[in-house]
Amino acid sequence: MKLTLGGDSHAQCILAGLRRLAPAGFEIVGRSFGNGAHVYDQFFEIENGWIQFTVPEYRANWSRLTDDLEALRDTSIFLLSLGLSSGPLFREQMWIDYDPPGFDGPGEALTRGVFQAIVEAKTKHIRAFYVALKERGAALMAVPAPPPHRQHWSLKTHDARKVALLHRLFVAEMEAFFAMAAIPCVRSPAEAEDETGFLRPEFRVGIPEEDPHHANTDYGELVARAAVAQATRLIGNTASP
Amino acid sequence: MTPYSAQPKKAFWRTAIADAHPLAIENLYTKKFDLNPQMKIATAGSCFAQHVARALRKGGFNFLDIEPPPPMLPQEDWARFGYGMYSARFGNVYTVRQMLQLFERAFGKFVPSDVAWQGENGVHDPFRPTIEPNGFSSLAELRQDGERHLAKVREMFRTANVLIFTLGLTEAWIDKNDGAVYPSCPGALAGTFDPARHEFVNFSHAEVYGDLRGLIQAVQSVNPEIRFILTVSPVPLTATASANHVLVATSYSKAVLRAAAGQVCDEFACVDYFPSYEIISSHPFRGFFFEANMRSVAPKGVEHVMGHFFAQHTAGPPAPHETQKAAADDDVWCDEEKLEGLYA
């Protein structure tokens, strides 16, 4: 069985984790599209029915996705690391003055509905990408990005409890989308988080301090284990009469 | 010599109207007091008031938006969540009694007994039923947001230099228990209509006049220097709950509102009346400014009305982002229009 992995820069540690794990019976292929910052704007288009990246970096890294989609036909599961990184949400300056729903703080409290609208708007191109892939027959599975870590620069201005809550709420919204779209989603492993919802320090070992986002291969391996287990169940279920 | 001899051209129908092209009719409005770009101008009222708010922003006035949208909420979602429509997130305020009760609720003088309507996907605020399209996620969230919102409304009443209030309807639905006025019929947008609890009212001139006086005096009690500009919405009723034809019901409603606004304007030095109703709806304008349904006001109509306003009140050039905001949102959010879908 073949697992193909693609997505934002968090795909790299998961790919490294998959290769380290080297699950028996699985062929592992994949690469990152590139910098995940591009996915908050229009980053693909449908051309003659095929998905085509419009971001040169993504095109360069994945050639033409049309070709890669052809290649995905013999892929059992396409693991996609996209849309579960909460950093682009929680690091926004507005959270200095505003509170997410359910947060007991002095800021302007947002309702759940307004928060959902913000997340939907922020991730609309990502959601459209998942839907476009699914409509074209890709067997998708979303894989997680790491939770925020304690050294993230935004904690200098943002309440840590608020950041942790924003991450949880964001992931919950995306998981709800995946559920609605019938796209399986691998959850970020609980053992990677401390009791306050932040990434445990050991999963940042080896990552340069100036890198605010990423986790190491140990985290990637935890995700890989969960992904392989879920993929095995899924393939088994699919194969069942 | 008679008293008419000294009257200006605008006082005579032939010279002011019959001999003039409708678009050239002038001097329809003479301001009672000056506005300047520093003044904080609050707006509230029926749907037409949204046009006024947008025009003020475009016109370089200091539109008071005391409950602005969160920075990450895209502009296309603002109206859906009641942001940017009026000075606070209170949605459409169609009747004077509703506006008076909004003041009273903000200052703790009135606590309606109807606090929440359970919907399919969430809990709705009876007094802002569409402010959260799917309802609030819980009663606690509704209460928290309601308290925060009313604090903003208090701030609006206390700090505005001018309140432009557009009177929309005389027809309303109230809670028989305490007289609380709903902005729309329970069951139309959210909630469930209960004939044992919900009652139709069509406010009389005396009631509208009394409520307007009460509103002005109440706001002055917390903000003595505030001034008011009253307008009457030219938008007809979408539907009437009276026994009358909707055209006759509209005529009654607008006549009552117009008369009450005029009387209050005559009595209070701090109250001006701007004739948006007359400019759009009067027969010399031949219905030019309405869309094909003869109800919605076309953009050129809004532009024409506000042209008369800005001929008297000028401000500086708008900030570039205000121009973009106004240009991007041509549609108004009008809860009352949802009644149109109720005709079976």
Number of helices of chain A: 8
**Which range best describes the helical content of chain B: under 10%, 10-25%, 25-40%, 40-55%, 55-70% or over 70%?**
25-40%
Query: What characterizes the major β-sheet of chain A?
Result: 4 strands, parallel
Question: Which oligomeric form is depicted?
Answer: heterodimer
What's the Cα radius of gyration of chain B? 20 Å
For the largest sheet of chain A, list the strands in their spatial order.
Answer: 2-1-5-8
Q: Regions of chain A with pLDDT < 50 over 5+ consecutive residues?
A: none
Strand content range of chain A: 5-15%
Measured by DSSP, the beta-strand proportion of chain B falls in 5-15%
For the largest beta sheet of chain B, what order do the strands appear in spatially? 2-1-5-9-10
* SS class of chain B: alpha/beta
Give structural notes:
The complex is a heterodimer of chains A (241) and B (344). Chain A has 241 residues and is of the alpha/beta class. Helices cover 40% and strands 12% of the residues of chain A. Chain A is built from 8 helices and 8 strands, in the order βαβββααβαββααβαα. Chain A has helices spanning 11-21, 56-62, 65-72, 87-90, 112-122, 124-135, 160-180, 217-239, and strands spanning 2-7, 27-30, 44-47, 50-53, 77-81, 98-99, 108-109, 140-142. Chain A has a 4-stranded parallel sheet with strand order 2-1-5-8, with helices on both faces. In chain A, strand 3 and strand 4 form a beta hairpin. Chain A starts with a strand and ends with a helix. In chain A, 42% of the residues are buried. The mean pLDDT of chain A is 91. Chain B has helices at 13-18, 48-58, 96-106, 139-159, 205-222, 246-267, 276-281, 299-312, 320-328; strands spanning 40-45, 62-63, 117-118, 123-124, 162-167, 171-175, 181-182, 198-202, 227-232, 271-273. The longest helix of chain B has 22 residues, at 246-267. The termini of chain B are far apart. The model of chain B has no long low-confidence stretch (mean pLDDT 93).
